[in-house]
C-alpha cells in the first residue's frame, strides 16, 4: 500500500473508495453537488464578452484614437460653422477608423477557430452508470466519480481510471501524436499517469474492446483540457511588424498632436478665431497622419499572402506574412516535411552483422515475421495502415507474392504499444505457431536470448557481447539514414497459450534480423536548407526517430554539416533532464537535431529559443502540436497530413507539407518588409508639402495653400495604388544572402524620417508652394491680402499646389523602387500597379485643374497650360536630385562585406 | 502538527487527503481533524465520513485525532480557538466548495484564517482527485520578494518526500503599454534580473533540501498578466500543483492580489495550494 501514490497505483476495487464513488455509480445528490463543485465537463472557457472585448480593443490603438478624435473635432467644427463640408471629413475619418478596426477584428476572429476543431474530439453524449443504472447523458454533465462505460468506436469525454477492461485498445493520437493503437488494462501499475496504461483520456477514442472507468478529471482538468486551455490562453507575441507599426503610429501621433496643439495655442494667443484655429489644428493633424498607410499595410500583406499561396504557403493571419520573413530559426519536423513520408524497405539485414541477406528465402522469412505483427488492409489502390506496416506489406508482395494467403495464417495481433515501442503477432507456419515482435532495437534487445543468421542456420544463444556487436552493426546501418527495426520471434511451445497476454509471451526471443527502412529526402530540401544557411537562418530538426536516423537525414539535407558549428544532437530523454538555461546553452553550442522527442517537448524548445530573443517558426501536424504552434512566432501546420486542430492553431499552412515552401515563404516575407519600408518612405514624403502650407499660413499673412480635403485626396486617394505597387515589388535576388534583419531595425528610422520629411518632402513642398504663389502673384494677389475660399484665383492656386504634389509623387515613386539604383532600370511596365499608379497621378493632376466635377469637390480651379507644364518639371527635379543623393550615399556606404544586412533607411 | 479544518463537504473529503499526506511527512505522524458543528452537514453523515478518513489514515500509518466542537461565535473563531497558535501549527483547509460570484477564496474561512495569521495556513482547491493528494510536479510562482522561498519553505518541506519536479516561475510584470513597445534588449535585462533572483532561490532550495532528489528548474517571463502566465505555465509544464503565496500586507495590495488569486483559482488546471506562513 505504501506504493499507492496516485490513482493509477491503486487496485481497481479500491479506486471507488479513493474517488468517493461506488460500482453502482453516484447518486443524484452527489452528482448535483459535484457538478456545482467542479463545473461542467467542457474544455471551453466561457467568456461571453470575449468578442465584444476583442472588437472594442481594436479601437484602443493610438492611430484609431487619433482618427476618432479628429472626426469629433470635424463634427464640432461643422456644428460651429456649417456648410464647410467638415462633417463629410468627419465621416470619412470615422469610416477609415472603423474599417481598420473591422479588418483587425476579422483577423483575430478567424484565428480562434482552433477551439472549434478541438471540441470535435469530445463526444456529445456518453454512457454512464448512475444509481445502479446505465444511462446515456450529455458528456458535459460528467463529474468526477462517474462510472464511464466505453466500447468500440466511442470517443472518451473525460479522464478516467479503468476498473473493468475487456481487450480495450485505444487511439491516444490527440495526446501523444502517435497514431498507433495502445492496449489498456485495469490492473494497478507502478508507472506515471502520463504513461497511459490503465487510464482513458479525454479526446482519445476506443478502437477495440470495452471497459468501465471511474472519472477523476473533467473539463479543463483533463489532459486534453490542458491542451485546449493552452490553445486558448497562449497569446502569440506581437509580430515584429506589429511592434514596428505600433511604434511608428505612436511617433507620428505624438508629432501630429503636439504640432497641432502647439499651433492651436499659437493661433489662440495671436488672436485668430476659434474656428480658424480648429480648422488649422485639424489640418496639421490630418497632414501629419498618413491615413492611408495602415490600410495599405494590410493590402500589401494581403497581396503578399496571395503570392505566397502560389508557392504552396497558405497564410491564415496576415501578420505572419512579414513575421515569416523575420525568422531566425525554423524548427521543422522530419517525416513528410524534409522527407516524402513514403517508407520503403531497402535493407533486409541479418541478425549478427546487419548485413544484407543473400538468399531470397531468408528475406521472405524475415518479411513474413514482420508482416505477422503488422496491421494492414488491402484495398484496391494498395495497402492501408501505418506507413511502416504498409512498407512491410509492399516489400513482402514484391518479394514473394500473395498477401491474402499469408494473412490467413495470422492468428493474433497485438497492437503497437507506445510505451514498449513494439508490436507483436502470432502466425502459423509449417504446423508451428510463431510469436513475433517487431520494434525499435532498444525495445527488442532486452527480450532476445538467441540470434539466427538467415533461415538456413539454427539459432544460437547470445551474450551481452554479441548483442553489443549487433547493436553496433545496426547503428552503422542507421547512420546511413535508414530507420532500423528489429524483428524477433519464438516458436510457441505446447504450454504456451495463443490467447496469453503479450508480456507473458515476450521472453527468450530469437533475433531474426533487421529491416532498414528509408524515407527519401525531398529533392528540394538540401537547396532550401542551403538557402537558409546563406540567409542566416538556423534550421533545427525535431523528430521522434532514432538519433542515428535523425543525424543521417540531417546530414543529407545539410542541416548538420561537419566543419560548421551545427553538429549537436539531443535526445528527448536528455532534453527532459535539461533546465531551460541548460537548453539555451546547448542551443548556443549549435544543437540542430532533437531526436526521440515527444510533441510536448517542442514547447520547451520554442520557449528556450524565444528566451534567446529569436524569432521562431515551428512546424507541426498533431493535435498536441497546437500549443507549440501558438507559442512560436510563426506556427506552420501541414496541409496534407496535419490535423484540423494544428491547421487552425497555425498562422501558416503548407499545402504541400514541403520544407522548401517555408523557405520560399521566408523570402517573400523579407521582400514584403523591404517593400513596406519603401512605401512608408514614399507616403511620408507627401507629408512635407501637406504640413508646410499650414506652418506658413499660421506664421505669415498668406492664404492656405492646401485644404484638409485636398490632403485627404492624396493620403486616402492617389497615394494608395502607388503604395500597393511598391508593396508588390518582387524579392531582391540578394534577399536570401543577407542575415535576418536586426530586431531593433525599425520601420520608422531617423534616416528615413530625415529623407522623407527634410529632403524629398521639403523639395515637394518648396516647388508646390512656389507654384502656388506664382499663380497668386500672376493673378494679381498682393502680400497680406486675404482671399475667400471660393475666390477663383485662390481655387486655381490651391489646384496647382495639389497637382504639383501629385506629379512630384511620380518622381518619388520611381526613386523608391531601389535604394541605390535609379529605379527606372526596373522597368515601369513590369509592375502593373506602379504603372497604374503613375497614370492615376497624371490623370488626377489634370482633373484637379480642368475637370469640373473634381474641381467642385476639391474646391480647385483651372490654370494656364504653361504653369501646369512647370508642375511637370517637378518630376525630373525630385527624381534627379534624389538620384544624385543615391550616388553620393553609394560612395559613402561601407564595403559590402561589412554590411550587416540589406541597405536600409 | 497538521490540523485539518473539516466541514464535511466532498471538497473537504478530497482536501483531507492532503491533510493525511502532509501528516505522513511529519515526525509525529498525527493528524488532528477539527470539525465545527455549524449544522451544514448532519452529525451522522460527518461521523461516517470521518470514519472513512480514519481508515485512509490508518493505511498511511497516521494517527487521527478528532476534535468535534460546538459552534461558538462563528466557525472561524471556533477554529482559532481550537488550533494552537505558532509556527508549528499547520492548518489545512479547503477553498469554497463552489464559486460565489466567481470567488473561491474571498470571504471563506480560509481567507479569514489567512488574515488572522495565527498559524501556518494552507488553503487547497482540489480539481484533480485522481492525484490522491500526491502531487509530484510543482509550479511555485515567486513575486521577487527579498525573502525568496522562505515563506513557501515550511509548506514545501511537507511535500518534499514525494516531489519529483519543481518549477519556479518569476513573472516580470510590465504594463500592457510597455509590453507592446518593449525592446528585445529590455526583455533580456528583465529576464536576467529574474534569473538572478531565481538562481539565488534555487541555491537556497538545494541547500535546504539536502539529500532530497528532484528536478529543479525555473522560468522567467515578461508579461502584463501574471495570473495568466501562472495558468499557462501550469498547463505547459503539466504540473500537479501550484503553490502560491498569499502574504500581502497592505490592504490595497491585498485587494489587487485577491482578484488575481481568484482568477487563478477559477482557471487552475491542477490542484492549487494557497499558503500563508505564520509571521
Compact summary:
Chain A is of the alpha/beta class and about 900 residues long. Chain A contains 34 helices and 25 strands.
Supply the key terms.
heterodimer, A: 905 residues, alpha/beta, 8-stranded mixed sheet, 25 strands, elongated, B: 279 residues, 9 helices
Major sheet strand order of chain A: 8-25-24-23-9-20-22-21
* Arithmetic mean pLDDT of chain A: 85
Computed structural class of chain A? alpha/beta
Overall residue-averaged pLDDT value of chain B: 86
Q: What quaternary form is this?
A: heterodimer
Kindly name the structural category of chain B: alpha/beta
Strand content of chain B: 25-35%
Rg result of chain A: 36 Å
Overall strand count of chain A: 25
Helices of chain A, by number, come to 34
Cα-atom Rg of chain B, whole angstroms?
A: 19 Å
The helicity of chain A comes to 40-55%
Extract low-pLDDT stretches of chain B: none
Describe the largest sheet of chain B: 10 strands, mixed
Low-confidence stretches of chain A: 897-905
Basic shape of chain A: elongated
Structure commentary:
The complex is a heterodimer of chains A (905) and B (279). With 905 residues, chain A is of the alpha/beta class. Chain A is 49% helix and 16% strand. Chain A is built from 34 helices and 25 strands. Chain A has an eight-stranded mixed β-sheet with strand order 8-25-24-23-9-20-22-21, with helices on both faces. In chain A, strands 10, 13, 14, 15, 16, 17, 18 and 19 form an eight-stranded mixed β-sheet that branches. In chain A, strands 1, 2, 3, 4, 5, 6 and 7 form a seven-stranded antiparallel β-sheet that branches. Chain A is elongated. Chain A starts with 11 loop residues before the first helix and ends in a 13-residue tail after the last helix. Residues 897-905 of chain A have low confidence and may be disordered. Chain B is α/β, with parallel strands linked by helices. Chain B is 42% helix and 25% strand. Chain B has nine helices and ten strands. Chain B has helices spanning 10-24, 43-59, 75-82, 109-116, 153-159, 176-181, 184-209, 226-237, 251-267; strands spanning 2-5, 30-37, 63-70, 86-94, 119-125, 137-141, 165-173, 215-223, 241-245, 271-276. In chain B, strands 3-2-1-4-5-10-9-6-7-8 form a ten-stranded mixed β-sheet, with helices on both faces. In chain B, α1 (10-24) packs parallel to α2 and α8 (226-237) runs parallel beside α9. Chain B is globular, with a radius of gyration of 19 Å. Chain B starts with a strand and ends with a strand. Chains A and B meet through α2, α8, α9 and α23 of A and α1, α7, β8 and α8 of B.
Amino acid at each position: 500500500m505504501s506504493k499507492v501514490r496516485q490513482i493509477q497505483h491503486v487496485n481497481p476495487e479500491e479506486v471507488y473508495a479513493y474517488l468517493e464513488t461506488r460500482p453502482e455509480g453516484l447518486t443524484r445528490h452527489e452528482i448535483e453537488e459535484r457538478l456545482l463543485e467542479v463545473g461542467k465537463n467542457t474544455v471551453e472557457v466561457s467568456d461571453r464578452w470575449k468578442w465584444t472585448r476583442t472588437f472594442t480593443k481594436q479601437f484602443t490603438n493610438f492611430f484609431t484614437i487619433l482618427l476618432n478624435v479628429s472626426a469629433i473635432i470635424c463634427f464640432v467644427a461643422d456644428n460651429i460653422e456649417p456648410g464647410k463640408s467638415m462633417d463629410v471629413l468627419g465621416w470619412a475619418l470615422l469610416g477609415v477608423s472603423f474599417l481598420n478596426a473591422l479588418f483587425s477584428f476579422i483577423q483575430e476572429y478567424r484565428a480562434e477557430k482552433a477551439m472549434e476543431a478541438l471540441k470535435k474530439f469530445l463526444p456529445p453524449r456518453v454512457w454512464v452508470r448512475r444509481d445502479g443504472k446505465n444511462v446515456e447523458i450529455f458528456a458535459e454533465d460528467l463529474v468526477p466519480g462517474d462510472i464511464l462505460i466505453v466500447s468500440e468506436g466511442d470517443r472518451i469525454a473525460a479522464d478516467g481510471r479503468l476498473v473493468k477492461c475487456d481487450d480495450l485498445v485505444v487511439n491516444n493520437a490527440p495526446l501523444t501524436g502517435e497514431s498507433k493503437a495502445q492496449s489498456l488494462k485495469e490492473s494497478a501499475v507502478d508507472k506515471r499517469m502520463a504513461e497511459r496504461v490503465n487510464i482513458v483520456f479525454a479526446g482519445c477514442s476506443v478502437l477495440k474492446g470495452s471497459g468501465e472507468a471511474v472519472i477523476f478529471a473533467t473539463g479543463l482538468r483533463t489532459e486534453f483540457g490542458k491542451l485546449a486551455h493552452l490553445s486558448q490562453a497562449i497569446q502569440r507575441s506581437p509580430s515584429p511588424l506589429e511592434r514596428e507599426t505600433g511604434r511608428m503610429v505612436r511617433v507620428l501621433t505624438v508629432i501630429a498632436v503636439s504640432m497641432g496643439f502647439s499651433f492651436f495655442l499659437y493661433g489662440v494667443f495671436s488672436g485668430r478665431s476659434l474656428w480658424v484655429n480648429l480648422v488649422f489644428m485639424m489640418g496639421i493633424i490630418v497632414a501629419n497622419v498618413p491615413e492611408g498607410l495602415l490600410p495599405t499595410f494590410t493590402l500589401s500583406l494581403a497581396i503578399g499572402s496571395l503570392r505566397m499561396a502560389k508557392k504552396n504557403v497558405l497564410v491564415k493571419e496576415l501578420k505572419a506574412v512579414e513575421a515569416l520573413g523575420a525568422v531566425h530559426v525554423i524548427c521543422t519536423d522530419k517525416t513528410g516535411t524534409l522527407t516524402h513520408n513514403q517508407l520503403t524497405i531497402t535493407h533486409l539485414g541479418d541478425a549478427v552483422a546487419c548485413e544484407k541477406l543473400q538468399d531470397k528465402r531468408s528475406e521472405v522469412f524475415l518479411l513474413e515475421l514482420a508482416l505477422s505483427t503488422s496491421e494492414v488492409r488491402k484495398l484496391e489502390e494498395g495497402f492501408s495502415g501505418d506507413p511502416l506496416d504498409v512498407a512491410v506489406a509492399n516489400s513482402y508482395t514484391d518479394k514473394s507474392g500473395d498477401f491474402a494467403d499469408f494473412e490467413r495464417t495470422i492468428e493474433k495481433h497485438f497492437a503497437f504499444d507506445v510505451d514498449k515501442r513494439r508490436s507483436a503477432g502470432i502466425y502459423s507456419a509449417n504446423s508451428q505457431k510463431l510469436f513475433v515482435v517487431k520494434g525499435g532495437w532498444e525495445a527488442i534487445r532486452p527480450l532476445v536470448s538467441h540470434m539466427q543468421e538467415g533461415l538456413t542456420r539454427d539459432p544460437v544463444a547470445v551474450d551481452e557481447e554479441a548483442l553489443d556487436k549487433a547493436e553496433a552493426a545496426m547503428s552503422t546501418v542507421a547512420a546511413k539514414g535508414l530507420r532500423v527495426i528489429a524483428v524477433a520471434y519464438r516458436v510457441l511451445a505446447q504450454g504456451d497459450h495463443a490467447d496469453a497476454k503479450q508480456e507473458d509471451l515476450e521472453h527468450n526471443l530469437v533475433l531474426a534480423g533487421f529491416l532498414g527502412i528509408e524515407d527519401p529526402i525531398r529533392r528540394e530540401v538540401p537547396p532550401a536548407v542551403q538557402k537558409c544557411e546563406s540567409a542566416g537562418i538556423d534550421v533545427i530538426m525535431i523528430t521522434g526517430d532514432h538519433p542515428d536516423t535523425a543525424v543521417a537525414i540531417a546530414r543529407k539535407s545539410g542541416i548538420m554539416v561537419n566543419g560548421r558549428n551545427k553538429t549537436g544532437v539531443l535526445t528527448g530523454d536528455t532534453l527532459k533532464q535539461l533546465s531551460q538555461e541548460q537548453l539555451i546553452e546547448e542551443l548556443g553550442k549549435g544543437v540542430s537535431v532533437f531526436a526521440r522527442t515527444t510533441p510536448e517537448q517542442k514547447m520547451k524548445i520554442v520557449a528556450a529559443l524565444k528566451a534567446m530573443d529569436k524569432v521562431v517558426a515551428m512546424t507541426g501536424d498533431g493535435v498536441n502540436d497546437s500549443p507549440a504552434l501558438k507559442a512560436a512566432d510563426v506556427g506552420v501546420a501541414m496541409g496534407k497530413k496535419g490535423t484540423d486542430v494544428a491547421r487552425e492553431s497555425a498562422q501558416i499552412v503548407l499545402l504541400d507539407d514541403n520544407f522548401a515552401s517555408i523557405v520560399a515563404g521566408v523570402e517573400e516575407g523579407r521582400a514584403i518588409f523591404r517593400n513596406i519600408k519603401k512605401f512608408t518612405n514614399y507616403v511620408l514624403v507627401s507629408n512635407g508639402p501637406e504640413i508646410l502650407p499650414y506652418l506658413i499660413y499660421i506664421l505669415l499673412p498668406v492664404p492656405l495653400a492646401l485644404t484638409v480635403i485636398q490632403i485627404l485626396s492624396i493620403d486616402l486617394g492617389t497615394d494608395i495604388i502607388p503604395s500597393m505597387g511598391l508593396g508588390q515589388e518582387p524579392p531582391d535576388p540578394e534577399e536570401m544572402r543577407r542575415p535576418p534583419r536586426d530586431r531593433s531595425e525599425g520601420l520608422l528610422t531617423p534616416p528615413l524620417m530625415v529623407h522623407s520629411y527634410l529632403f524629398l518632402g521639403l523639395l515637394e513642398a518648396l516647388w508646390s508652394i512656389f507654384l502656388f504663389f506664382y499663380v497668386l502673384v500672376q493673378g494679381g494677389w498682393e502680400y497680406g491680402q486675404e482671399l475667400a475660399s471660393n475666390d477663383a484665383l485662390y481655387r486655381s492656386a490651391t489646384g496647382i499646389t495639389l497637382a504639383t504634389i501629385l506629379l512630384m509623387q511620380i518622381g518619388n515613386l520611381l526613386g523608391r523602387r531601389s535604394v541605390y539604383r535609379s529605379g527606372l532600370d526596373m522597368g515601369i511596365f513590369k509592375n502593373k500597379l506602379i504603372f497604374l499608379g503613375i497614370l492615376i497621378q497624371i490623370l488626377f493632376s489634370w482633373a484637379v485643374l480642368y475637370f469640373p466635377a473634381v474641381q467642385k469637390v476639391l474646391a480647385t480651379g483651372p490654370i494656364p497650360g504653361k504653369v501646369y507644364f512647370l508642375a511637370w518639371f517637378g518630376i525630373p527635379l525630385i527624381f534627379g536630385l534624389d538620384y544624385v543623393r543615391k550616388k553620393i550615399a553609394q560612395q559613402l556606404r561601407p564595403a559590402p562585406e561589412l554590411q550587416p544586412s540589406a541597405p536600409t533607411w | 502538527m497538521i490540523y485539518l479544518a473539516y466541514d464535511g463537504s466532498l471538497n473537504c473529503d478530497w482536501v483531507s487527503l492532503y491533510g493525511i499526506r502532509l501528516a505522513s511527512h511529519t515526525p509525529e505522524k498525527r493528524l488532528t481533524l477539527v470539525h465545527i458543528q455549524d449544522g451544514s452537514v448532519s452529525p451522522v453523515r460527518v461521523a461516517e465520513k470521518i470514519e472513512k478518513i480514519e481508515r485512509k489514515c490508518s493505511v498511511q500509518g497516521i494517527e487521527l485525532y478528532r476534535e468535534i466542537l460546538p459552534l461558538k461565535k462563528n466557525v472561524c473563531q471556533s477554529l482559532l480557538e481550537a488550533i494552537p497558535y505558532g509556527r508549528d501549527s499547520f492548518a489545512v483547509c479547503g477553498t469554497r466548495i463552489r464559486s460565489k460570484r466567481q470567488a473561491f477564496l474571498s470571504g471563506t474561512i480560509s481567507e479569514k484564517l489567512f488574515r488572522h495569521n495565527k498559524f501556518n495556513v494552507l488553503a487547497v482547491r482540489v480539481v484533480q482527485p485522481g492525484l490522491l493528494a500526491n502531487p509530484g510536479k510543482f509550479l511555485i510562482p515567486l513575486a521577487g520578494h527579498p525573502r525568496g522561498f522562505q515563506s513557501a519553505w515550511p509548506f514545501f518541506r511537507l511535500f518534499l518526500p514525494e516531489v519529483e519536479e519543481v518549477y519556479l516561475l518569476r513573472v516580470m510584470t510590465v504594463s500592457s503599454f510597455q509590453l507592446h513597445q518593449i525592446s528585445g534588449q529590455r526583455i533580456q535585462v528583465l529576464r536576467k534580473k529574474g534569473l538572478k533572483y531565481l538562481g539565488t532561490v534555487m541555491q537556497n532550495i538545494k541547500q535546504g533540501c539536502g539529500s532530497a532528489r528532484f528536478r529543479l528548474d525555473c522560468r522567467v517571463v515578461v508579461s502584463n498578466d501574471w495570473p495568466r502566465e501562472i495558468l499557462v505555465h501550469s498547463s505547459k509544464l503539466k504540473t500537479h500543483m501550484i503553490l502560491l503565496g498569499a502574504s500581502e500586507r497592505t490592504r490595497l495590495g491585498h485587494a489587487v492580489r485577491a482578484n488575481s488569486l481568484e482568477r487563478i483559482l477559477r482557471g487552475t488546471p491542477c490542484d492549487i495550494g494557497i499558503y500563508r506562513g505564520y509571521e
